[in-house]
Amino acid sequence: MTGTSLFLYYGNSWAGSVSDGPSTFRFFDDFETWNATAGSTGWTDLASLPEPIADQTSAVVDGKIYSFGGYAEGPTDPVDDSYCYDPTNDSWTQKTPMPTPRWGMVGVEFDGKIYVFGGLTGIGTATGVAKNEVYDPVTDTWDTTKNAIPVGLADEGVMAVKVGTKIHLFLLSAHYEYDPATDTYTPKASMPTPRYWSTCALVNNKIYIIAGYGNWAVGVNEAYDIATDTWSTKARLPISIWGATRENPVINDKIYVVNGLDGANFYYTNYEYDPATNSWALKGSSSHYRDGIGCAILNNKMYLVGGRNAGYNPNGLTFHEVYDPSAEVMPVSDKWSFTGAGYVTAETAAKYKGNYGMQIQQLSPAPNEQLAQSLNS
Questions:
Q1: What is the pTM of this model?
Q2: Which residues of the chain register pLDDT less than 50?
């Protein structure tokens, strides 16, 4: 093919995969995982969950990861199952069930225990759970005596993060500070953009609420200053999704927004946000597209547990994978970047290399009907 150029025309760069590439094309190269060679993006599959679960929550205590609740066969099937993952031997152990079966709740580690707030027992706000149940990994027991959470937090997709001796909780416009010492809730400045199922992360005494579900998927990024009880708007996520990594996905002061759903497509994408520069970078994609995952950070690695990949009649998944940013290999000179509000673009010098050797180069930075040329001869 010397002297011949192959042109690829594409418009919706965020459309999900709906066909089997290797079975469809004589020559197929998977460009979804952003890596030059297979397995070079820092992602590794681990021991699967013992059962399929979606919309659960995860937390870390003493080097082990805990997964609570969720649903197995749709939101009318909440579970009370509790599991513990030990990364030293890549194994799961079942623990004492959560007292209230529910999904969409959030777990936060505090003083060696895990506080589990909110969630639903079925479909709709009528099934909202206004409970704060506390798990003690040492005794494998649950404390059900804590005060109920405010009604405004009793729903699916509630967000929470530990800040010093307090825990901040968010849902839609509601924002409360919980004090475990006094078992009390204090209202704080409301979220400017009401939403839930957002990424919630703490970096340098500011809480970032990113993306989520408002009236539909949003990409808003708003930061709460704990010292001044005020909010500010930051650089938005380049796409609009909900159900991405929710439980404080921070490694070395960078926030990772991984996976998610925009209402039509589930995502593999992995975006890294740097609060210091207020900028985003697209990193190596995860291995499995889904939303409603449990997220846990341990030893500067991010563990993703369970989730779902069907919007109607959703069932849980057993996927369990880990991401190590330090192990990721992405060609710096060939890396694409993104600009604007929700689309990928690149300068003409940027090249994109697939898993099996195919390379393309974008010839125009236009956001729609983009033009790419094969670099293979």
A1: 0.80
A2: 1, 9-40, 332-335, 338-345, 348-349, 355-356, 363-370, 376-377
Q: Do 87 and 224 lie in a common domain?
A: yes
Residue 1 falls inside a structural domain: no
Distance of CA 287 to CAs 6, 77, 256, 281, 319, Å? 28, 27, 15, 18, 9
312 and 338 together in one domain = no
Are residue 11 and residue 57 in the same domain, yes or no?
no
> Residue 253 burial by CB count (10 A; 0-12/13-18/19+): exposed, middle or buried?
exposed
Domain span at residue 173 reads 43-327
| pLDDT for the residue 121 | 96
Coil, helix or strand at residue 24? helix
Q: How far are the Cα atoms of 93, 344, 352 from residue 373, in angstroms, in the given order? A: 50, 16, 10
Task: Determine the pLDDT at residue 35.
Answer: 35
Distance CA 223, CA 203 (A): 10
pLDDT of residue 229: 98
Domain contains 2: no
Strand, coil or helix: what is 260? coil
Alpha carbon separation from 158 to 24, 213, 231 (Å, rounded): 41, 11, 19
Q: Any idea which residue has 């399929």 for tokens? A: 52
Residue 23 and residue 122 in one domain: no
* Pair (27, 141) in one structural domain: no
Q: What is the DSSP letter of 70?
A: -
Give the pLDDT confidence score for residue 126 in this predicted structure.
Answer: 85
pLDDT reported for residue 372: 52
C-alpha torsion angle, residues 130, 73, 140, 64 (rounded to 10): -110
So what's the pLDDT on residue 290? Answer: 95
User: 293 and 366: one domain?
Assistant: no
In the beta sheet, which residues pair with residue 106? 117
Among residues 107, 105, 100, which one has the least CA distance to residue 84? 107
pLDDT of residue 328: 87
